[in-house]
Structures are given as structure tokens and as C-alpha cells.
Amino acid sequence: MADDAPPVRKIIHVDMDAFFASVEQRDNPDLRGKPVAVGGSSRRGVVAAASYEARKFGVKSAMPSVTAARRCPDLIFVKSRFDVYRQVSQQIRAIFADYTDLIEPLSLDEAYLDVTVDRHGLGSAKAIAEAIRARIKEETQLTASAGVSYNKFIAKLASDQNKPDGLCVIPPAKGASFVASLPIRRFHGVGPVTAAKMERLGIHSGADLAAKPLSFLQAHFRSSADYLYGAARGEDHRPVRVDRPRKSVGAERTFGDDLRDRTALHDALGRVADAAWERVARSEAKGRTVTLKVRLADFTTLTRAQTFSREVAGRDEFLEAGKQMLEEFLPTEKGIRLLGLTLSKIQREDEGGEEDAVQPSLPL
């Protein structure tokens, strides 16, 4: 029945271009046009963000700083200034709020907006996205890319299509064909491990995924099967959620050689903590539980968790909790091939924003 069909939403995904690095280049003219990495330059440092000039050399976020410096010898490292990034992020969110109350921040530098209700009568979701991008540039001197579509999945894919400083609109009639043309590694929610598994199964593109029956996906991907089946057909009925609850934020690293030495393991855990805490800070997450993940050389995976009576104070306390739990596994004869650290018990369960009126007549 047509009356049972979900409403046609107008979704914008706004993603700031190389946000941290762009803020540093804006504030320091000497950095403009040069390869810049935000993060520590020490042996244990991790890149939090890279300018587009640095990305040309293969430098990217979450990369060890030593690797980044090796790829780009002229790379300039700048210490992160999260207080400044948060301030700029608040400016940007204030711009969003002028166009809609349905805002789902994913991090300091990206968000979903439901603009089904055309508050200012601009006539289309594309016009709203253009107005938002123009105001961001005028008020912050930074550029943003945007994807406009009828659901969150495609809007996020579209925002990456014409970066930097780009806009991409995918209407409902073109959603399935757009998804079919993309490599599976571009799919939001498909990480490197899942992508590698898909490729082993002969799934390299959205078209390959769409060709698989639901029963096949259920057999191989279990709880993700329904999402993948719909995504491959350009379907995603998730609403934009205000104050979207997050379950956890963290990072993990697999080592080229199994580690046994206590000092080497503590150093490795420090690098994992740096990468994880950058993500915690970027997403403005606050949590009380630290979870350590340890995978031994024989692929046995073990976890330990510590819950505090208050929010974890910072990166140092986060790492110290991880080190204390790691000691439970030391010394180790088998060796350790992977370490992970995660912060959880984050935010409250709040799912506002689903009942707002829709206007299916608003064009994309």
C-alpha cells in the first residue's frame, strides 16, 4: 500500500574539508598550500588530520606519525587545538540550526541535517545545502562539502563524491544506480575487514552486493544482512536523530609481528590510545568504561573492562586503565597480534526528531 510507504525525506550530509588541518592553515598563513598534519610528531604520535596537500602523498588520519613523515618528508606537524576546533564546530552548528532543528552530529566536522521542512522557502534541498555551504565559507573562511539525497546512507556517500568544496545531489530515481557504481569499500558501515571478506566472496561493487540474495547475506554477515541488502538498493529508512546516542569510540591495531616484550606492548598500547583518544575528542564523547581488547597469536580474543564512577578524565587516565588491564596478560608466551582500546557508556538514550512533519513535495 502506498500509504504504508515511509516518508520521502530530504537529507543533507555536511562534511568539512580536512577540518583540523584547514583550521590550522586558516589561522597560520605560513601553512597555506603546504602539507600539514595535525598530531604529534614523536615516535608514538598519530596523525589526527591531514591537509589535502599532505593527502597527495598518502598521509591520512590515524596513520602513525613516523609513517606519515616517511611518505612526505616535507610534512609539517602541528599540535592539535581541540578547544579551537570545538569553537569553530559550534559556529557551524549554529548555521545548521538556522535551517533545521533536526541535526545529527557525527563528529566535530560532519553532521546529517533533515531539511524536509523548508524553513526559509528556498525551494529545494540543493538550494538549502548551497546556502549552508556559502555561510560556512563566509563566517569561518573554511570550505565544506555536502551530499544531498533522500536518505542518510546515500547523502553521506554523495558528500564525498566531489570533495573538496563540492556538492553532489542524488535524487530517488538515481539512488540505486549510484550505489551500484561504487566500490564496496566506499560503503559507510563496511570496514576494511568486512570489505576484504566481501571481496573474497566476489563482492567488489554495489552492483555485486545487490546481486546477492538476502539469504546469502544472512549466512555470511548475520546482523548486518538487512542493512547491506537495503543499502545495495539505495534504501535506508533511518531518521536523522537529534543527540544521537553513541555506544563506544575506540581504535585497535594489528601488528606485523606478534609482540611479547612488555615495553614494546606498552608502547604499542600508547599509540592505540593516541588514535582512540583523537576519535573520542573529535566526536566529543564522554564515557565511564574503558575496554581493552587483546588478540593472541593463535587468534584467541580476550577483553577486560574497567568502569569508573565518573567520566574518564582524559587520554592519560584512559591509557593508564588500559595498561593496568594489559598487565593481566603479561608475561605472554603466545605473543599478542592485536590491541584495542575503547571508551563506552557514552551519552544518554535520546531519540528525538522522528515525529517532525514532512513535506514530500520539496525537491532535492
Automatic annotation (TrEMBL):
It is found in: Cytoplasm. Its cofactor is Mg(2+). Its main location: cytoplasm. Binds 2 magnesium ions per subunit. Poorly processive, error-prone DNA polymerase involved in untargeted mutagenesis. Copies undamaged DNA at stalled replication forks, which arise in vivo from mismatched or misaligned primer ends. These misaligned primers can be extended by PolIV. Exhibits no 3'-5' exonuclease (proofreading) activity. May be involved in translesional synthesis, in conjunction with the beta clamp from PolIII. It comes from the Bacteria. This is DNA polymerase IV. Transmembrane segments: none annotated. Keywords: Cytoplasm, DNA damage, DNA repair, DNA replication, DNA-binding, DNA-directed DNA polymerase, Magnesium, Metal-binding, Mutator protein, Nucleotidyltransferase, Transferase. The record marks 20 as: Substrate discrimination. Mg(2+) binds at residues 15, 109. Residues 11-191 form the UmuC domain. CDD domains: PolY_Pol_IV_kappa. It is an enzyme of class 2 (transferase). One of its GO terms (biological process) is SOS response. It catalyses: DNA(n) + a 2'-deoxyribonucleoside 5'-triphosphate = DNA(n+1) + diphosphate. It comes from Stakelama marina. Monomer. The active site is at residue 110. The keyword Transport does not apply. The keyword DNA-binding applies.
